[in-house]
Amino acid sequence: MSTPAEPHSSALLTPIQRRVVLVGMMGGQSLAAIDQMVLSTAVGSIAGELGNIAQAPWIFTANLLASASSMPIWGKLGDLYGRRRVFQLAILIFIGASLLAANAGSMIQLLACRALQGLGGGALLTMPYAIIGDIVRPRERPAYVAFISVVWTTAGFVGPPLGGFLVEGPGWRWMFYLNVPMALLALALIKWGYRIPRQRIEHRIDFAGAALLFSAVGSLILYTSWAGDALGWTSAHALLLLGLSFCLGLLFLRQERRADEPIVELGLLRMHTVWPPLLATCIFGFANFVIAFFLPLYSIVVRGTSTVKAGFALAPLTAGLLIAGIVIGRRAARTQRYRRYASAGLVVYIVGLIGLALADSDGSLLVFWGCSLMLGIGSGMLSPMVIASLQNSVDERFLGIASSLPGFARAVAQTIGTSALGAFFALRLDGHLRADALPITDPPFETSALLDSPAAIRTLAEPLKSAVIESYRAAFSESFVVMLGIIGCSLVATRFMMDPTHGGESERVPIRSRPSSITRGPQRREESSGASARGGPGGMQDG
Question: What's the CA gap between 359 and 367, in Å, rounded?
């Protein structure tokens, strides 16, 4: 006689609790998302008050370094100690860092606080996806994952105006103070609603692996942040950072093979249900993030719009991301065709890029907005499919680390891609300016002057103005063509994704790389009767 299947953990929550948890984790994630958008308008004011404007870019770099490096570590900690506890800890870290940042007396203090914020933000950005895996049945996950796009859409619309209001009003320090009430609300909602018991198990944290991963990713991010700017891509110091990252990465892989509880279970990466969506989102992230910088600049220089109106260049993209994520997420939950929608999304994205590559400065504004909309639709269709595909392909023990890997891969790829594609654009623009604009100027000028103030291009006299605009258009077009090739590789990767109806959810490939951590498992702690009474039957406690 066969034993009945163990009910999914979502059955332990009421519908009200599930909604409360969803709102709470979206509120927690919005802390990290809106924080970046709000600060984008305050860098000048912060540097003016604290001094040392040369270190101002590190307000974002320090946060990114800590956030990206810690994502897999948080995912593993969630698997080991329960996602509710880890998410609450991350919120408390973010609150503490925000209060310290609001009272920073120097740029160095602020940067340290931003790094601490990034440490907490690494969990706030990735843990909600794993929590969805706990509170929602596998079949329904694409629809719920799509709701996360609401957070980023809200951050894109609310962040910059809110930041401008605070800078002009009470001051930039209130950007950090306002994090506190929102964080406390998210903390309360998660504590009340997220009551899924888990067994108390003895674990060993792979501190060596965590340190090696953090250092390897940090060195890589520093290389991409400094190369081409302060150091140069092939300078000795830059190559030293790149070599250090590579060596630390090799040491990390070696450590993970022998650790009892590895930060990243390498067996996951060999599963044919895991690596295609992970590779697809990594390649996509390499090319996609730079669009947020390219479209407003394209609108200002090539189309001649004002700086204020250029901000609306991303509005169609954001709307497409939101609508496609929710609509396609719900449809995928019904049909379970993850691969189809992921591939279709990238096809739509490619069509949008082709339209931008072929556009000229006199083209219709509706065409430009339509291309931006296609980019948003394509991105919105891909992201939920990647998360849901990964979650439905792994054992519940690895849900946290599996959910954190796409965010981690995308963050690292975005950092590298933004620097690489930005450098390619600047290189091609410099070549076009020297070929088309410099020969008709008297006296000659430095091309860097045009790179520093794009809005001033429209004040140039003819025929120089037309030559410069055409140089920008050609550089953008060539950059979009390069992005087409990269997105095409991501499209190929999605064709290897597995639908749950074709081996995804039902396959559950076991990981057997080490008997200590996989087949034998960690040793369970013997619970006393008092502990059992507190935590529920079998020594269970709220996770």
Answer: 8
pLDDT, mean of residues 415-444? 76
Coil, helix or strand at residue 86: helix
E strand or H helix at 386: helix 365-391
The total number of residues shown for the chain amounts to: 543
Alpha carbon 17 to its chain centroid, in Å, reads 27
Q: Which pTM value belongs to this model?
A: 0.79
Q: What is the residue whose two structure tokens read 């956030």?
A: 67
Q: Enter the tokens of residue 244.
A: 């250090």
User: Of 78-92, 360-374, 500-514, where does the model show the most confidence?
Assistant: 78-92
| 213: nearest Cα among 255, 156, 175, 185 | 255
Domains 10-195 and 274-506 equal at CATH topology level = yes
Please count the other Cβ atoms lying within 10 Å of the Cβ belonging to residue 19: 14
- In angstroms, the CA 135 to CA 15 distance is 10
For the chain, the structural domain boundaries read 10-195, 274-506
Backbone dihedral region for residue 460 (phi beyond 0: left; psi -120 to 50: alpha; all else: beta): beta
Q: Using alpha carbons, list the distances in angstroms from residue 2 to 6, 8, 11.
A: 12, 18, 21
**Stronger pLDDT, 211 or 398, i.e. the higher one:** 211
315 beta partners: none
Look up the CATH architecture of domain 274-506. Answer: Up-down Bundle (1.20)
Query: pLDDT value at position 493?
Result: 92
CB atoms within 10 A of CB 509: 16
Q: What SS3 state is found at 323?
A: helix
Report, as an integer, the average pLDDT of 172-192: 89
The CATH superfamily assigned to 10-195 is MFS general substrate transporter like domains (1.20.1250.20)
